[in-house]
Amino acid sequence: MYDPFEFCKKVQAQVCRDNLRKYYRIARAGKWYGGIATADCCGCQLRCVFCWSGKPRDNPGAIGSFYRPQDVFKALVRCAKKHKYHQLRISGNEPTLHREHLISILRLVEQTSFTFILETNGLLIDREYARSLKPFRNLHVRVSIKGSTPEEFTTLTGAKPEFFYYQLDALKHLYEASVSCHPAVMLSITPPQNLERLKQELKSISTTLADEIEEEYIFLYPHVIQRLKQHGIEPLVAYSPEGIPTELI
After folding, report:
1. Is residue 247 domain-resident?
2. What is the CATH number of the domain that holds 82?
3. pLDDT tens-digit profile of 161-216?
4. I need a labelling partner for 106 at 20 to 30 A (CA). Which of 22, 53, 194, 234 fits?
5. Is 233 inside any structural domain?
6. Does 231 reside within a domain?
């Protein structure tokens, strides 16, 4: 097991430079959220077995290029206008690793009518980070919780179980800072009783958060299947890349 915060420092050294951030793609169209323009960044402090990202996560120093916030913003807006989207996001890995870079992009988005969806594992969103996001009215934060218990968190990420609670703390800090947010929970290995326990924990922050859980499930891409087998994990629920319910091959 590893400490995600210690590992984070090593990743940041590879993907963050001044106000530049490393991306392997800064504009693609996507069907998620009803249509969204996406920039895919490099580097994450977690090693989730179900992650669809390959080399950009596992070896971020060897792929991608550094971009200025305005370059990423302009590429996203061009993509959104071309496809008549109203939403923008950074995905692919962990967008919060470079706070200054992210805040610079949010300032640019704030001058438009676009909504920015921040997808994050939440580990870095402490009270100060959450407050730095408060001024942005065009922002919505999706906190992706890895499993429903500390044990499931460790099974899915390989990280120490106590870091599970940092994800819940992120939601608490965002809620207290009046930042629009909701939880998404990876439920592929979660029995019903564990989900109910998590809902009670979320209710202690806000009943709204408990009612707005977005369910996430593993997509069985070939490299994901390989990782699952290496770790001896058999999902209770999983889907093919085409979105069809299926069993681990």
Report:
1. no
2. 3.20.20.70
3. 999 999 999 999 999 999 999 999 999 999 999 999 999 999 999 989 999 999 99
4. 53
5. no
6. no
